[in-house]
Specification:
- The chain is mainly alpha-helical and 834 residues long.
- It has a domain at 560-677: Leucine-rich Repeat Variant, CATH 1.25.10.10.
- It contains 45 helices and two strands.
- It has a two-stranded antiparallel ribbon.
- It is flat, with a radius of gyration of 42 Å.
- Mean pLDDT is 78; it is low at 1-19, 28-33, 470-477, 685-689 and 698-834.
Length: 834
């Protein structure tokens, strides 16, 4: 390399110089960029091209014979599909080719083949007999592949095959060859594979066969010269013990485990210890006290002098040991074992930790990581240790240890004890007050991972805290938890300030338990306003919804009317009538929660009208969300008590149908109307009456329809004389089939109307020899047939419109409770324009 020029050494950081340096760097990047591979040559393209007319089987055979490795791998990956599609031809033509290429195949193709063979077995593409005949030998052939990953993949496939193979096939194809494969003359890999196969075969044969043919091989492998083989066989003794029963386990397996527990190899001793712990339930009390307990004692005493990995395993299995050996320890042994556990809980904390990590040797860092794992396992086993010492002795025996675990400098340890906190609380029962301070400590933990682990069972923990302890009187619930509310609020603020919004959402959801824990005044002054703030300012929708639902629960359990009214007013004014459309959307979310949590009458009293008022919202998304909510809103009404609210709701729906310009909102409204009509038709047995009406209409002479004048509004309002009352009444009764509810209990009033307005409520339409009556108050009929009315009969746009018109509809806000009825509103508008 050439030395840099003198000018470069000056390091000029002016703007021009910086741009010059950047250009130089870009040039260097271009020079060092790898050269793009050249395009495929025509010969290569020809070699990779396959005739499209070939069938799947023929293409697979061709690619396995003449294709490249990647093409062969693709065929083998597709083998399960070929077996499903054409098993006979696949076995006859494709599988022989697979057998040919596998011995020389690469690692990727071998792994793919192992997975495909296992998939074919799991999908039951062929019978077990056919599978064993066609695939088993291929699997056995590649068990000892030179690549350990490939060998393990084929072994996993074989172990799954052993589960379903018949006993005779297992004996001839697997067990008999295993006798030679397990000999010392074979490779270490072959003997390791034999250990795992023996562990699987034990459950497939009877006790006599196991004792005569399998156990001699097991003993031989337990005494193998290689520690890897001894350790592997030792870990299979648990499966073997389950297959041979208690007697053979005590006479054969236990002596081998005792010998292996004294092995010179630490991994062998560790395997023996873990197997003994897992088999504690198999042995009787004498074996546990006379044989296993001394082994455990010796193992614990030597563990600090051995490798730290043994300490990790020992600390992880302490819970099982306490449970399995419970009642066997003498008082002295009990105390020694407890002291051993306490020592593990503080392992590594005695060392000075103030130095810089960059200055610590790598082996020391690795040792500290192992110590952290030991303390983490101790935290995991803490509930079992409470049972071991008896919860009554917790304060004297284990409280100091629990304090250390909750204040451990490492997050994984505190995270684990936070997960176990609920179990500890349940075990302590009336003594749960002893760990109040530790609850506050974990709520205030600087790590959100710890907080997230704790709040999974926060409602249950707080309930135990409030009902347990020395005082269970409602008024004194918080006397022993003075710092709970500040800790809860600080935890929420810390979660809100982080990027972990799921933790924040979960915490807000768990706060819904607070009405059962603290008073409504404390909730009102310390939590309610915070929920409002989150709903209006937070940018994460799930968090806003969680705050909204929790606020509704707070409101549900608040019995002070002035506080209730203030919260309701804030919801309506700041959310429902807020300037931001986002706040109005959250108001609709809140309405949905109120419908779920509160009574129907509560929603109708306070939120029904503010909710449907949003049909006039200028933002289409708000109107759309309201349309989705309308069925739930309508379900809160109780007829006839809420009939006036139903009329206002229907008026809003009609207004949307007539004036809505957004196609998505309109589509939702129309769909809701169709569902409403379908429900009305399903719930009203009118099929026979409808049929009778149609039959009568078909028999009505065409002259009748010609004799009935059509009321067409005009300037003078007297263009057509009215008919007799009898004809009007008969036509009105027949129109009832279109809307049975619109004219209910109104016939008397309609008959007394003057002739000038007698046709205002309906418009007769004649044609094709029969007369039909279109009710202007029937929403569902109008929604479907508005476009089918002849233009000569459509309302004039210059007139005051009814609920069907395209002009200014009747505004429910400008009418009284009575004038909001669609029928009477129509009559009034007709009268006002003679």
């Amino acid at each position: 390399m050439h030395p840099p020029p003198p000018a470069a050494a000056a390091m000029d950081f002016s703007q021009n110089s910086l741009f010059g340096y950047m250009e130089d760097l870009q040039e260097l990047t271009i020079i060092e960029r790898p050269v793009r591979r050249s395009l495929k040559t025509p010969e290569e393209i020809e070699r990779l091209t396959v005739d499209e007319d070939l069938s799947d089987i023929e293409r697979a055979v061709y690619l396995l014979s003449a294709g490249q490795d990647i093409q062969g791998t693709s065929v083998i990956a597709n083998l399960p599909f070929l077996m499903r599609q054409n098993p006979a031809e696949t076995l006859r033509r494709v599988l022989p080719k697979v057998r040919e290429v596998l011995p020389v195949a690469g690692v990727e193709m071998q792994l793919t083949a192992a997975v495909s063979f296992l998939t074919i077995l799991q999908e039951d593409s062929v019978s077990i007999h056919t599978y064993a005949h066609s695939f088993l030998q291929v699997i056995l052939l590649h068990l000892e592949h030179r690549d350990a990953g490939v060998s393990n993949a084929w072994l996993e496939t074989l172990l799954s095959v052993i589960e379903v193979l018949p006993k005779e096939t297992l004996r001839h194809e697997i067990l008999n060859p295993l006798v030679s494969k397990a000999q010392l003359s074979q490779t270490v890999q072959s003997r390791l594979v034999s250990c795992k196969i023996l562990g699987k075969l034990t459950n497939k044969f009877d006790a006599h066969t196991i004792k005569r043919e399998i156990l001699p091989l097991v003993k031989s492998l337990c005494q193998d010269v290689e520690y890897e083989v001894r350790s592997c066989m030792c870990r299979q003794l648990e499966n073997i013990a389950q297959g041979i029963g208690t007697e053979l386990t005590k006479s054969v397996v236990l002596p081998e485990l005792i010998e292996l527990s004294r092995d010179e190899g630490s991994s062998v001793r560790l395997a023996a210890f873990e197997t003994l712990v897992n088999l504690l339930d198999v042995f009787d009390t004498d074996d546990r006290s006379q044989t296993i307990l001394p082994l455990v004692k010796s193992f614990c005493e030597k563990s600090f002098k051995a490798d730290e990995s043994i300490l990790i395993s020992l600390s992880f299995h302490l819970g099982k040991l306490c449970h399995g050996l419970y009642g066997i320890f003498t008082p002295d042994q009990h105390l020694r074992f407890l002291e051993f556990y306490k020592k593990l809980c503080t392992l590594g904390l005695q060392q000075e930790n103030g130095h810089n990590e960059n200055q610590i040797p790598p082996q020391i860092l690795e040792q500290e990581k192992k110590y952290i794992s030991v303390r983490k396992n101790c935290a995991y086993n803490f509930p079992a240790m409470i049972v071991f010492v008896d919860p009554k002795n917790f304060h004297m025996e284990l409280y100091s240890t629990f304090f250390c675990l909750c204040h451990d400098p490492e997050v994984p340890v505190r995270y684990t004890i936070a997960i176990c906190f609920y179990e500890v609380s349940k075990l302590l029962n009336s003594g749960v007050y002893l760990i109040h301070k530790e609850l506050i400590t974990l709520l205030q933990d600087e790590s959100l991972e710890v907080l997230d682990a704790l709040i999974d069972h926060l409602p249950e923990i707080l309930e135990l805290m409030s009902t347990g302890g020395e005082s269970s009187i409602q008024e004194n619930k918080l006397s022993s938890l003075p710092d709970l509310i500040p800790a809860l609020t600080a935890a929420e603020q810390r979660a809100a300030a982080s990027l972990k919004w799921r933790t924040h959402e979960k915490l807000l959801q768990k706060y819904a338990c607070l009405p059962h824990i603290i008073s409504s005044d404390q909730i009102y002054y310390r939590f309610l306003q915070r929920m409002f703030t989150i709903m209006m300012t937070n940018n994460v929708l799930p968090v806003q919804k969680a705050a909204s639902r929790t606020l509704c629960i707070f409101l549900r359990y608040n019995r002070k009317q002035e506080q209730r009214h203030e919260v309701i007013q804030k919801l309506i004014e700041q959310l429902g009538q807020g300037k931001s459309y986002w706040n109005r959307l959250r108001f609709l979310d809140t309405c949905e929660f109120i419908i779920e949590i509160f009574s129907k009458s509560f929603f109708c009293k306070y939120f029904f009208l503010p909710a449907i008022e949003l049909t006039h919202d200028p933002v289409a998304n708000v109107r759309m969300k309201l349309c989705y909510l309308l069925p739930k809103v309508k379900s809160t009404l109780k007829i006839p008590a809420d009939k006036h609210l139903l009329q206002q709701l229907e008026m809003c729906v009609r207004k949307l149908l007539c004036q809505e310009k957004d196609k998505d909102v309109l589509a939702i409204v129309k769909r809701e109307q169709l569902e409403k009509e379908k429900q009305q038709n399903d719930g009203r047995p009118m099929s026979d009456k409808t049929f009778e009406k149609k039959r009568r209409d078909a028999k009505t002479p065409t002259t009748l329809s010609k004799s009935i004048p059509i009321s067409v509004p005009g300037p003078s309002g007297t263009s057509t004389p009215s008919t007799s009352k009898e004809i009007k009444k008969s036509k009105l009764i027949r129109s009832q089939s279109f809307n049975n509810q619109a004219f209910h209990a109104k016939y008397g009033n309609l008959d007394k109307c003057p002739s000038k307005s007698s046709t205002a409520g309906y418009t007769p339409v004649s044609g094709l020899g029969k007369t039909s009556v279109i009710s202007l108050t029937d929403d569902s009929f109008r929604a479907r047939n508005a476009s089918s009315i002849p233009t000569s009969f459509s309302p004039s746009p210059s007139l005051p419109s009814t609920s069907r018109g395209t002009g200014n509809p009747v505004d429910p806000k400008s009418s009284g409770s009575k004038d909001t009825q669609p029928r009477k509103a129509t009559l009034k508008s007709r009268k006002s324009n003679p």
